[in-house]
Write a structure and sequence with these properties.
Blueprint lengths: L7 E9 L6 H10 L4 E6 L3 E6 L11 H6 L2 H17 L11 E7 L4 H12 L12 H5 L3 H10 L5 E5 L4 H15 L4 E8 L5 H9 L28 E9 H6 L6 E10 L9 H15 L8 E3 L6 H15 L7 E3 L2 H4 L6 H9 L2 H4 L1 E2 L23 E2 L5 E8 L3 E8 L4
Parallel strand pairs: 4-5, 4-6, 9-10, 9-13
Antiparallel strand pairs: 1-7, 1-8, 2-3, 6-7, 8-14, 11-12, 13-14
Length: 414
């Protein structure tokens, strides 16, 4: 008898992005071409540009909790509560030891350590002024741990470190744990507090990979010939995932079904993507989903607006979707919000899921002159496109040290 893994569905979404604090607001801004990048003061570096979130942190936390916790934790708590509320589940009645929390994160702890060093520098570096909250703030499991404290979850709660592929990994791992029967309800996705550490700005600047533009809202411009780097952003998007039988039993609304996924590694360079391994990741995800390339109707690209990275990914996409895929549309979300690091994949998926209902593909904006090396069949540029059908969405997220992730979500059909 062959093993039939449980079907896993998305039943709730909570998010904060630089251009929206709910799925409906976020989606509307994607269709209207509204970017969320703005000037931002960075310690030691002055006025730069970044994607900044403007959610209400006091909606689910008290002021003392905000002082004790972290920005990544606060974003996670906001998104988790919003996702649980959106799911419509009777959360108080759920056995909390059967709830899992899986939060993808690019990095964590840099912000708090930089802040503490800066604070004690004013006291001749006397460590007696070092906060006793520093250790719980900087442990890698902090974002998920803060959610578990806020929601009273006693099941597994931990962070998945996967560079900028982490948002996808949060969902992939949750789906696996649900299928294994380790949990019955999962809160998962990705978060980022990256704009609050000057180190990440300095690091990208030293690589000549930090975006500049006279108009901040046009700074993130994947595929454009004049693109010159990444816009660093914060954000978060967490989902609730359930086994299909459980979701149907309680009459839950279903955003989509996890169809397939793949995670692999380049093993070739610290930062330069490997298009061969990226294409391999996409193909294996398609095989896992039992779908052909032509079955995918939206491909959301990872493209970060770096000169070489965009070219490499377009090479990978072209090798898989370049021929025989007339109904496949290619778009990018970072052109609106910059690079939300660990939250990127989760947010980018969320922005496309409503297309199952309205059949509209949001475009990549800020493309004034398409780079010929990024010319891929099916690119949707600057203006939304009405699709004939949207039955499957493929989401690419890639990260430093060569980690690649591809997640496929399909329209739910009973």
């Amino acid at each position: 008898m062959s093993f039939q893994p449980a079907r896993i569905v998305i039943t709730g979404i909570g998010l904060t992005a630089p251009n929206g604090n709910s799925l409906s607001e976020f989606r509307q801004n994607l269709l209207n071409g509204v970017a969320g990048v703005e000037p931002f003061d960075v310690r030691y570096m002055g006025k730069l540009i970044a994607g900044v979130c403007h959610y209400d942190p006091l909606r689910y936390q008290k002021r003392k909790e905000l002082r004790v916790g972290t920005r990544a934790g606060s974003i996670s708590i906001y998104c988790a509560h919003e996702a649980v509320k959106d799911s419509g589940v009777a959360f108080d009645a759920l056995p909390k030891d059967r709830v899992g929390i899986y939060v993808g994160c690019t990095e964590h702890g840099n912000v708090e350590t930089e802040n503490e060093i800066y604070a004690i520098s004013k006291f001749n570096y006397d460590t007696k002024y070092w906060s006793h909250y520093h250790n719980p703030r900087t442990v890698a499991n902090n974002p998920a741990g803060e959610v578990s404290l806020s929601l009273g979850v006693t099941g597994p709660a931990y962070t998945i470190g996967a560079a900028c592929a982490a948002g996808n990994l949060g969902l992939i791992h949750a789906a696996q744990m649900l299928r294994l029967g380790e949990v019955d309800f999962a809160i998962c996705g990705g978060v980022s507090e990256s704009i609050h550490t000057f180190g990440i700005f300095a690091g990208f600047k030293s690589q000549n990979a930090l975006a500049t533009h006279a108009d901040p809202k046009k700074a993130s411009r994947p595929f454009d010939k004049g693109r010159n780097g990444i816009v660093i952003s914060e954000g978060g998007c967490l989902y609730t995932l359930e086994r299909l039988d459980d979701a149907l039993a309680r009459g839950a609304k279903i955003y989509g079904e996890i169809a397939g996924y793949c995670v692999n590694s380049d093993a070739s360079d610290y930062v330069l993507p490997n298009p061969g391994r990226q294409a391999e990741c996409v193909r294996k995800a398609l095989t896992n989903a039992k779908l052909a390339a032509a079955d995918i109707h939206i491909v959301n690209t990872h493209a970060t607006s770096t000169p070489q990275g965009d070219i490499q990914e377009c090479e990978a996409i072209r090798s898989v979707f370049g021929t025989g895929c007339p109904d496949t549309h290619i778009n990018n979300t970072k052109s609106y919000i910059g690079h939300c690091m660990g939250a990127a994949g989760a947010l980018e998926l969320a922005g496309n899921l409503p297309a199952f209902d309205d059949l509209v593909v949001h475009p990549t904006i800020n493309v004034e002159e398409l780079d010929p090396l990024c010319d891929v069949p099916g690119l949707v540029l600057n203006t939304p496109k009405q699709a004939a059908k949207v039955d499957a969405i493929l989401n690419n997220s890639f990260g430093m040290l060569g980690i690649n992730s591809t997640l496929i979500v399909k329209r739910f059909v009973a």
